[in-house]
Amino acid sequence: MPFHPTHLNLPLTGAVLDGLRAGDSVELSGAVISFRDATAARLMRALEAGEPLPVSLKNEILYAVGPSPPKPGQIIGSAGPTTTARMARFLPTLFAAGVRAVIGKGELHGDEMTPFLTHGAVYFAAIGGLGALLAKQISSATVVGYDDLGPEALYALEITAFPAVVIIDRQGRNFHETARAHWKRR
Amino acid sequence: MIRDIDVSVLRDTVARLIVEANYNIPDDILQALRDAAVREESEIGRRTLEQLVRNYEIAAAERLPVCQDSGVAVVMLEVGQDVHWTGGSLQEAIFEGVREGTKTGYLRWSVTGDPTRMLKTAGGDAPAVIHTEIVPGSDVQITFASKGFGAENMSALKMFVPADGVPAITDFVLETVDRAGADACPPIIVGVGVGGTFETAALLAKKAVLRPINVRHPRADLCRLEGELLERVNDLGIGPQGLGGRITALGVNIEIYPTHIAGLPVAVNLGCHSTRRISTSL
């Protein structure tokens, strides 16, 4: 059966977000902002202190990544997703600041899912350990803040046909949960 | 006969191993992923496995890190008791090799010097975890691993009692893998360490996760248990990247050591699909 992922241009409109279903395979193209443990903690501190952020999060999509350094001639080094759950506690604040969706890897359940539903945000999973391949779907990478954090700096990334799967949709479905239940042998 | 080895030889070897380990995953794992891409029943699972294989082919051909998480360098040394190290500190030579390879191989520096994060500035002063065993002879056997933390974070250890027995080992393995789900980057490798004291179990689990997945335990009953555990782990339905399917793990390896008559320590160390290891000898 031929494989046809849905192509989506970023930023995602409310109507597009409404139409996404858990389990949909997509290819994302457009601007995203990187975040990781230290980045998220610092963004949250700034938001709580009412300080300006290095970059606006309004309507943005966050990608959980801390890339390898680029080799000469590379735009970015290996750049696969990192585990989203480590940053779950920061998500309510980041969603309140305007973030519409998160790309990462791994599962989110229960309390980790709630802020997605409250804010109508969508969770996309990219494939963990696909670093070399996913670097080729990133057409530009610029540090826009927190450069002292090294690989955890805030990067503005331009992604092109970046493969991902919708995990948490706006209806509150969780694809990891349904897929695992479907394939489990009792 | 005492054999002198200059620590610079070890430094250069480590600098080479860390780069090779991060550009090329072991043949046994790559082959298992290729087989899995054919065997997997779930369509999204097959597609995921095909992409993983493609990633490893690209990384090898273009000499790129397979994953941005080049992890913590784990160096396991078996040192012959007739070896005499010259030319400086053994530990510093390993650290130097890790620093050098990380730089020349364009690997991400993934270690913080202060695990408590209380220090405002902390470099990676000890960028490798080193385990040394003294063995007869004058050879040095090195197993190098770059251990990513997606899977490491989902590992677990528990002190059972003798009456809990093998069912406790089985349940603990299944519970650990199930809780890890997609976060450990399946298909995973499951290392199970049983016995010794608290820390022995963890080290055994690390040795188990770093054993090639096509090498079974030499004891027939443990070999059978490895097979049973693999089947039951795969029955969990987690599948590649937790997207559902039959292939959750590529292998389950068990290592054991004698323990106290009152105890049954069990550790489960998980390895992601890119469990990077490489061995050589000096």
Kindly describe this structure:
Chain A has 186 residues and is of the alpha/beta class. In chain A, 24% of the residues lie in helices and 27% in strands. Chain A has one domain (26-183): Fe-S hydro-lyase, tartrate dehydratase beta-type, catalytic domain (fumarase). The longest helix of chain A has 12 residues, at 37-48. The relative contact order of chain A is 0.23. The two termini of chain B are 16 Å apart. Chain B has a 4-stranded mixed beta sheet with strand order 4-2-5-10. In chain B, strands 6-9-7-8 form a 4-stranded mixed beta sheet. A two-stranded parallel ribbon of chain B has the order 1-3. Helices cover 40% and strands 26% of the residues of chain B. The mean pLDDT of chain B is 96. Chains A and B meet through helix 5 and helix 6 of A and helix 3 of B.
Blueprint (SSEs and pairs):
The complex is a heterodimer of chains A (186) and B (282).
Chain A: E1 6-9, H1 14-19, E2 25-35, H2 37-48, E3 61-64, H3 91-96, E4 101-104, H4 114-119, E5 122-125, H5 131-135, E6 138-145, E7 154-168, H6 175-183
Chain B: E1 3-6, H1 7-23, H2 27-39, H3 43-62, E2 72-80, E3 83-86, H4 90-104, E4 128-135, E5 140-147, H5 149-152, E6 156-160, H6 165-180, E7 188-196, H7 198-209, H8 220-234, E8 249-259, E9 264-271, E10 276-281
Parallel strand pairs in B: 1-3, 2-4, 7-8
Antiparallel strand pairs in B: 2-5, 5-10, 6-9, 7-9
Helix pairs in contact in B: 1-4, 2-3
List keywords for this structure.
heterodimer, A: 186 residues, alpha/beta, fumarase, five-stranded mixed beta barrel, 7 strands, 24% helix, B: 282 residues, 2 domains, four-stranded mixed sheet, 8 helices, 10 strands
In short:
The complex is a heterodimer of chains A (186) and B (282). Chain A is α/β, with parallel strands linked by helices.
